[in-house]
Structure formats: C-alpha cells, structure tokens
Design brief:
Blueprint (H helix, E strand, L loop, with lengths): L11 H8 L5 E4 L6 H28 L13 E6 L2 H14 L4 E5 L5 H9 L7 E7 L4 H5 L25 H7 L2 H12 L4 H14 L5 H10 L6 H17 L1 H15 E11 L2 H14 L20 E3 L9 H6 L7 E7 L1
Parallel strand pairs: 1-2, 1-4, 2-3, 4-5
Antiparallel strand pairs: 5-7, 6-7
The chain binds S-adenosylmethionine.
C-alpha cells in the first residue's frame, strides 16, 4: 500500500539564500516532494510582489489615472523528476500553491537541456537563472517498502527511481558476474570487503536467486563482522542503487549542461549526501572556477580556458545541529554553490 508522499526538504533556507537572486527561470532537477520548489516559488512570488508594488507606486505617482502595473510576472519554476510518484505528488502541491508559474516534467536531469525544452515545448532552451540539485533518494522512496531501496524493509529488490527503467537491483544482484559486483561495491560503496561480499553473493545465488532486500541483507550480514553490519549494509545498498540508476553519470552530465544553460549571474546549487557525489561536484566547480594554464612548466600568455564560474561556498554548507535533530536524514548533506560569470 503506497504511503502519503513525505520528504522534509534539507537546508531549505540555505538553498533559497544561494539560489534565488531575482526573476527568471529556475530548474529544480530533483523535484521529489516539491519542498524546495515550493519555497523557490513562494520566494519568487514575494519578490515579484514587492517589485510590482514598488513599480505601481511609481506609476501611480506619475499617472494617477492608470492603476495597472506595467510589469508582468517573469519567473517560472521547472521541476524535473524521473519518479512518476514524486512528480504527481509535487505537481499537486505546487499547482495548489498559486504562486510562481510552475511546470513539471518527467525526465532524467542527466538530460537537462532536453527536459527544459520539453517543459517549455520549445526547440531551444532558454538561459536559466538557477539550477538546484538535491541528490539521492527521497524519504518517500526509502520509506515505501515496495520500492526496494531499504535494507530495513523486506521487499522485492527493485531500487529504480524511474519506473520506466529496465534495470532493477534484482538484475544487478543475480546477473552481474563476481568481478563486476566487487567493482561496484568498491567504487560506489567504498566497501573494503567488496570481494568477499561479491563472492558470497555469487555462492548464495547459485543455490537460489536472491530476489528480496532481506535475503540480500542476510548474505551481506553473513560476510561481515557483527559490529560493522549496519554500515556495510548501507554501503552495499548504496552501491547497488547507484548502479541501477546510473547516478554518477547523470550527475556529471547534468553539471555540464547546467553550466552551459545558466545565464551570467545565474546560480548552481547542489546538495550531495555522500563523498562520491560531493567529490564530483567539488571537482567540477573547482575546474570551472579557475583559469586553466595547462601543464606546469609550459609558459603561455593566456589561459587555455578562462574561469566561467565563481565559487560561492569555499567550504560546503552543512545542516545545523538543530536541523539534524529534526531530520536525521540531513546529517550527511553538503551544499555547494557557484555563480556563472
Ligand atoms: C532528495 S529527493 C529531492 C527532494 C526535494 N528536494 C524536496 O524538497 O522534496 C531526490 C529526488 O530526485 C529524484 N532524482 C534523483 N536522481 C534523478 C535524476 N537523475 N533525474 C531526475 N530525478 C532524479 C529522485 O527520484 C527523488 O525524487
């Protein structure tokens, strides 16, 4: 039975502070429950209202007879999610808000340009004022047992964010060879027992296919000392989830496309929840925000590539103790932001 959609937005005020600078087109690439989009929409509407009031006062002062503001709202929020359940819930929430115009689009943020064009039904994507990515899975996806993301809930091994994807966790666990499984556990889970766990998994599935989260958890636990079981389970499930959804590839593609789509002064804000994601974001923003002088020792007069972004967060912004107390899922969050030059 599907539960009500719930997800507490992480670093909400910080996202608004770094992302929303004025009227324009904003893209929330990870719509989820729509919490961040809602606040972006309300903030933009508030800014529009303040501006319109100011203009109206000026207008009234100049032409007492003309009571209409000349200014039309110019902002738009586009929400992208590859999860149809999230998309439906957030669309309902944002449509009821009646604040800034909102368009929802089902798609993968790895194809950001295509998603923006589809949302606006145009052949060319417009320049964007802001792009937000709040990576990973939502509380709803984790809590809804039938989605098969959690090692704490018995369910069919699924882990697909998009119900339209073909590859499931069951396919990965039962069809990948031992070396490929070990590689995924090591690279995407940073799991030091990757080889042992992969070996045990292959032995177990030769007896009977591993079809559920609890069966997978049993195998992992049997290959792990008791005190480390919970952390190891989290790492193995994370690794399989990343593989099923090709999360890191999508992130890399999205960063490049977001960079290209942002207008001068437009902002990119990314919240990541584990070191693999954060490293990709950090490296990308560092690379974009520094002039490239090529190999050391080769004298050149002008950089091979000039910086196109300005870093806004020297260190990642992390949630306060109070937020972590309120929402334990925020504990590993790291926000990084940069502005297009
Ligand atoms: C952490 S939640 C976002 C929560 C949201 N910020 C809120 O306030 O409710 C991440 C969402 O991004 C979606 N998602 C993750 N990777 C995606 C991708 N590559 N393309 C589109 N959506 C993605 C997930 O389906 C999930 O709904």
């Amino acid at each position: 039975m599907a539960s009500e959609f719930f997800h507490a937005p992480v670093l909400l005020n910080e996202v608004i502070e770094y992302l929303v600078t004025g009227a324009g087109i904003y893209v929330d690439g990870t719509l989820g429950g729509g919490g961040h989009s809602e606040k972006i929409s309300l903030t933009l509407a508030e800014k529009e209202r303040a501006l319109a009031e100011k203009e109206q006062a000026l207008l009234e002062q100049a032409q007492r007879e003309n009571k209409r503001s000349l200014r039309e709202p110019q902002s738009l929020v586009i929400g992208i999610d590859q999860d149809q359940v999230a998309l439906a819930a957030a669309t309902k929430r944002l449509s009821a808000l009646n604040a800034t115009p909102f368009r929802a689009i089902e798609g993968n943020f790895g194809n950001l340009t295509q998603c923006v064009k589809a949302a606006l039904q145009t052949d060319t994507a417009p320049k964007l004022k802001g792009v937000l990515l709040d990576l990973g899975v939502s509380s709803h996806q984790l809590d809804e047992a039938s989605r098969g993301f959690s090692f704490q809930k018995a369910a069919t091994l699924d882990m697909r964010m998009s119900q339209r994807s073909a590859l499931t966790a069951k396919d990965v666990v039962n069809e990948y060879d031992e070396a490929k499984l070990a590689k995924i556990f090591f690279e995407y889970g940073e799991e030091k027992r990757s080889r042992t766990i992969a070996k045990r998994l292959v032995e177990a599935r030769q007896i009977k296919p591993i079809e559920t989260t609890d069966k997978l958890a049993d195998v992992v636990k049997r290959a792990t000392p008791r005190v480390e079981q919970t952390k190891t389970l989290a790492r193995i499930f994370q690794a399989i989830r990343i593989e099923v959804n090709q999360e890191l590839d999508a992130l890399k593609r999205c960063l490049t496309e977001a960079h290209d789509l942002l207008e001068s002064g437009g902002r990119l804000v990314v919240i990541s929840y584990h070191s693999l994601e954060d490293r990709i974001v950090k490296d990308f923003l560092r690379q974009m925000s520094a002039d490239d002088w090529g190999a050391k020792g080769v004298p050149i007069q002008v950089p091979l590539r000039k910086a196109t972004m300005k870093m806004l967060t020297k260190k990642p912004v992390e949630p306060s103790d109070e937020e972590i107390e309120r929402n334990s899922r925020a504990r590993s969050a790291k926000l990084r932001a940069a502005e297009k030059i």
